[in-house]
Amino acid sequence: MTRDRAALGEFLRACRDRLTPAEAGIEAFPGRRRVPGLRKEEAALLAGVSTDHYSRLEQGRQSRVSDDVVDALARALRLTEVEHAHLRDLAAPAARRSAGAWSSPQRAEPGLLRVMTSLDHLPAILLGRRAEVLARNALLTEVLGHDLPPGTSFPRYLFTDPHVRGRIANWPDFAAAAVGGLRLELGRNPGDRLLAALVDELRAADPQVARWWAGQGVADRTSQVKRIAHPVAGDLRFHVEAVSVPQAPHQRLVVYTVEPGSPTAQVLPMLASWAVQDPAASR
């Protein structure tokens, strides 16, 4: 069984285990149940495939999976749009998926970099593959209390910095989404050995990461709330928005926006005046 076929089977099992027959809109098959989730036979019935075919999918023995079957499984297992896309990535033939290690140095997309540079009144950071920091502005470092120079792994900072859980007030929500984002990216780029190594490192270093990873959750958060406990400015609340462009799909400009007139909006100019302008932030 190849690694990508095993990942497909693990994801299907996790989705099946969390969905009960009642939630799926069917009568439970008779007989003793060891888990509350769907049985293989029930999942196969809902998807309109044979039990043998479904079993081969979960066991990683089905080399080719049609788009129609992927769509049917997504409907049967009540997958979200992001989960559906992840399932499609996992089911795609290896030849259709990126096999590169993505080991070459990353460079910030010029257009996204210009936009970030113009947003000196808001915290902003440009992330590349594996959520590597490509650029950030001085206000971002003031808000997070960490320099985050280009080349920093944002996930490694999020899970290993000793102060981050006190700084990000809603750290569990934000961190769980980060793990889901790593899984989504690895599904799209199974040949990225550096990404796989980062995931293995974080799982070994933090039991919480290991639990989230085992849960098979995926996330593609383009908008979420982030609460910061700043030691001087107090509680800050941001709506974090992520923007990408077609010419650089592996890069995301992440901007910490604020509600006009909010306490956070009122204190940002003060924070900006404290921030030391670092030329390296725009590289």
What is Rg?
21 Å
End-to-end distance, in Å? 43 Å
CATH architecture identity of the largest domain: 2-Layer Sandwich
Helix content: 40-55%
Strand line-up in the sheet with most strands: 2-1-5-4-3
**Uncertain runs with pLDDT below 50, 5 residues or more?**
277-283
Range of strand content: 5-15%
Give the count of structural domains. Answer: 2
Helix-strand pattern = HHHHHHHEEHHHHHHEEEH
CATH class of the largest domain: Alpha Beta
Q: What is the number of helical segments per DSSP (H or I, 4+ residues)?
A: 14
Structural class: alpha+beta
Q: What do you see in this structure?
A:
The protein has 283 residues and is α+β, with helices and mostly antiparallel strands. It has two domains: 3-96, 434 Repressor (Amino-terminal Domain), CATH 1.10.260.40; 110-282, 2-Layer Sandwich (Beta-Lactamase). Helices cover 47% and strands 13% of the residues. It has 14 helices and five strands. A five-stranded antiparallel β-sheet has the order 2-1-5-4-3. Strand 4 and strand 5 form a beta hairpin. Helix 3 (40-47) crosses helix 5 and helix 8 packs across helix 14 (263-274). The N and C termini lie far apart (43 Å).
Task: Give the secondary structure arrangement, pairings included.
Layout: H1 3-17, H2 21-24, H3 40-47, H4 51-58, H5 67-76, H6 81-91, H7 110-118, E1 124-127, E2 133-136, H8 138-144, H9 154-160, H10 164-167, H11 171-188, H12 193-205, H13 207-214, E3 223-230, E4 234-245, E5 248-257, H14 263-274
Helix pairs in contact: 3-4, 3-5, 5-6, 8-14, 12-13
